[in-house]
Amino acid sequence: MTKATGILLVAGNSIRYNKKINKNFEKINKKALFLYPLEVFLKNKSISELIIVCKKEEQDKIIKLIPKDSRIKITTGGKERKDSVYNALKIATNDIVIIHDGARPLLKNSYINNCLKEIENYDGCTIGVQTKDTIKIVNKKNIVIETTKRVDTYQIQTPQCFNKELLKELHEKNRYDDITDDCMLLERNGYTVKVIEGDYTNIKVTTKEDLDIAKLFLNQV
Question: In whole angstroms, what is the distance from residue 58 CA to residue 22 CA?
Answer without folding.
Answer: 9
